[in-house]
C-alpha cells in the first residue's frame, strides 16, 4: 500500500503525525525577509543617519542611533524566529506574531523618516501575522 501526501495532509512514517501548511513555510520565509529589512534599516540608521528624509528632531520618540539599535535587535531576533518557524516550532509562531506587531508599530513611528520603506515593512508585517495565525494549531511548515 502506498501513502500519498499532499498539502494539508498528515505525514505517514515514524513519529507523531502532523499537518503540513504552506502558510507556515511562507511565514518563515517572510519573517526572514522582514528581519533582514529591519537589520538593513538598523544599520542605515546607525551608520548613515543623513540618508533619511527628516532631521533627528522630527522623528518620533528616539534619535536615529537608538532606532538603529532597536531595528538591529528586532531584525536579528526576527531572523532567528523565521528559522524557528521553518523548523516547525510553536514558540516561533507566537514570537513571530508579537515581533511583527512590534515592528509594525515601530515603523509607524519611523514613517516620517522613510515613508515608502516603512509602509512596505508594515504591509509585510500584517501579511506575516496572517500567515502565522491562519494555519491549524498543530500544523508545521
Automatic annotation (TrEMBL):
Keyword entries, A-Z: Membrane, Transmembrane, Transmembrane helix
InterPro entries: DUF7144
Signal peptide (residue range): none
Segments traversing the membrane: 21-47, 67-86, 91-110, 116-133
Organism this protein belongs to: Actinomadura fibrosa
UniProt name for this protein: DUF7144 domain-containing protein
Highest taxon of the lineage: Bacteria
Xref: Pfam families: DUF7144 (PF23636)
Start and end residues of each DUF7144 domain: 23-135
Amino acid at each position: 500500500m502506498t501513502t500519498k501526501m499532499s498539502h494539508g495532509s498528515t505525514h505517514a512514517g515514524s513519529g507523531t503525525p502532523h499537518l503540513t501548511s504552506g502558510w507556515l513555510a511562507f511565514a518563515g520565509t517572510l519573517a526572514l525577509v522582514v528581519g533582514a529589512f529591519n537589520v538593513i534599516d538598523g544599520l542605515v540608521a546607525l551608520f548613515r543617519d543623513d540618508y533619511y528624509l527628516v532631521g533627528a528632531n522630527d522623528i518620533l520618540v528616539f534619535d536615529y542611533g537608538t532606532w538603529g539599535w532597536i531595528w538591529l535587535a528586532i531584525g536579528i531576533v526576527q531572523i532567528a524566529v523565521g528559522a524557528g518557524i521553518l523548523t516547525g516550532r510553536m514558540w516561533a509562531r507566537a514570537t513571530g506574531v508579537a515581533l511583527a506587531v512590534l515592528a509594525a508599530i515601530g515603523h509607524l513611528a519611523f514613517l516620517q523618516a522613510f515613508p515608502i520603506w516603512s509602509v512596505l515593512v508594515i504591509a509585510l508585517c500584517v501579511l506575516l501575522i496572517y500567515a502565522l495565525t491562519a494555519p491549524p494549531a498543530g500544523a508545521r511548515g
